[in-house]
């Protein structure tokens, strides 16, 4: 499976987060069709984003954070990204990622790990000083965030705040086609 760097970083982090045991660099290299050296560089990039990846002689692993995750579907304009992220972090939650579901390309994701207003500012500075546009632009403002919090109550507060701000897109129940 050949992935672009950002998608590969997201998938490596996800694999480590979901694994109960360490994953060797060779195994990651084989999974993502890259060299072991590329995996070492990717792990360094993830650590630079404050992702707690540990190394042992058996491979890489992450401590499983104790808490809860929920995925929220959002919709807003680009000039409302800061407000959305600040709503979440101000309630004590972490925005782990952003992804879109594209009808042709499928899921396109990026790791954020935004936990504070300072992180939001850095993220927005990166967007403003880049030739790239926010990921949600390819789906007309629709996107998803995986949000982590220490308790369900915080996630409920995040959901209420996003709904009150008009950002939350209610999930439609599955309808069987006739």
TrEMBL record:
Protein name: Transcription repressor NadR
A Pfam family annotated for this UniProt entry: 3H
Record SUPFAM superfamilies: Putative transcriptional regulator TM1602, C-terminal domain, Winged helix' DNA-binding domain
Species per Swiss-Prot/TrEMBL record: Aedoeadaptatus acetigenes
Superkingdom assignment: Bacteria
Annotated ranges, domain 3H: 73-168
PANTHER family linked: TRANSCRIPTION REPRESSOR NIAR-RELATED (PTHR40068:SF1)
UniProt domain Helix-turn-helix type: residue ranges: 8-60
């Amino acid at each position: 499976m050949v992935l672009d760097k950002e998608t590969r970083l997201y998938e490596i982090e996800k694999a480590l987060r979901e694994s109960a045991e360490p994953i060797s660099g060779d195994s990651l290299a084989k999974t993502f069709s890259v060299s072991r050296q590329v995996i070492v560089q990717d792990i360094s990039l993830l650590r630079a984003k404050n992702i707690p990846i540990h190394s042992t002689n058996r491979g890489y692993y992450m401590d499983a954070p104790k808490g809860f995750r929920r995925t929220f579907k959002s919709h807003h304009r680009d000039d409302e990204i800061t407000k959305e992220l600040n709503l979440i972090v101000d309630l004590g939650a972490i925005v782990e990622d952003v992804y879109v579901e594209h009808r042709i390309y499928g899921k396109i994701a990026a790791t954020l790990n935004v936990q504070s207003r300072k992180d939001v500012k850095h993220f927005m500075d990166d967007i403003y000083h880049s030739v790239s546009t926010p990921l949600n632009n390819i789906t007309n403002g629709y996107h998803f965030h995986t949000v982590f919090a220490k308790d369900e109550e915080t996630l409920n507060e995040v959901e209420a705040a996003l709904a009150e701000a008009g950002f939350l897109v209610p999930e439609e129940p599955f309808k069987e086609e006739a």
